[in-house]
Write a structure and sequence with these properties.
Elements: E1 27-30, E2 35-41, E3 45-48, E4 51-57, E5 61-64, E6 69-71, E7 74-81, E8 84-86, E9 89-97, E10 102-104, E11 107-108, E12 111-114, E13 119-121, E14 124-125
Parallel strand pairs: 1-3, 2-4, 3-5, 4-6, 4-7, 5-7, 6-8, 7-9, 8-10, 9-11, 9-12, 10-13, 11-14
């Protein structure tokens, strides 16, 4: 049944509850039994279900799933954390920490959502400085 004009997904799950990449385009998946060490860049969503150690810099969405572990920094358009992140998170549009999230590091995004139960050891900075074209951490006021 559709609520508030939103169609129900074909899977039968209530609208808005799915946690899959935002688009129907392909996504880079680090599976639950996989470990990746290095730098990742590209133009598709990234889903981490296993262990990732390094840097991620993509212009799309990064999701660290419930069993996922990220050791390193993330820079993306949007970041959703349900697992563990040990590093800095910089999102150009939005960062979301789900109830199961554990983050040790700073979060910088214009919009930040922290669910009840999420754990965060670090600072939250909500500013336009994380938006594209502006380097994070550098003020443009008064210039």
């Amino acid at each position: 049944m559709a609520i508030f004009g939103k169609a129900e997904p074909a899977s039968g799950a209530p609208a808005g509850t799915e946690r899959t990449p935002a688009s129907s385009a392909a996504a880079t998946l680090i599976g639950p039994n996989s470990r990746f060490v290095g730098e990742l860049s590209g133009d598709e969503d990234v889903v981490i279900q296993g262990n990732f150690e390094g840097q991620i810099d993509v212009p799309r969405r990064v999701t660290v799933a419930g069993a996922g572990l990220m050791k390193g920094d993330i820079h993306a358009r949007s970041v959703v954390v349900g697992g563990r992140v040990h590093g800095q998170i910089r999102a150009d549009e939005r960062a979301e920490l789900l109830a199961s999230a554990s983050v040790q590091g700073n979060v910088n995004a214009p919009k930040v959502v922290i669910a009840e139960g999420a754990q965060l050891q670090g600072k939250v900075a909500m500013s336009d400085e994380a938006s594209p074209g502006k380097p994070a951490g550098k003020s443009t006021k008064g210039e």
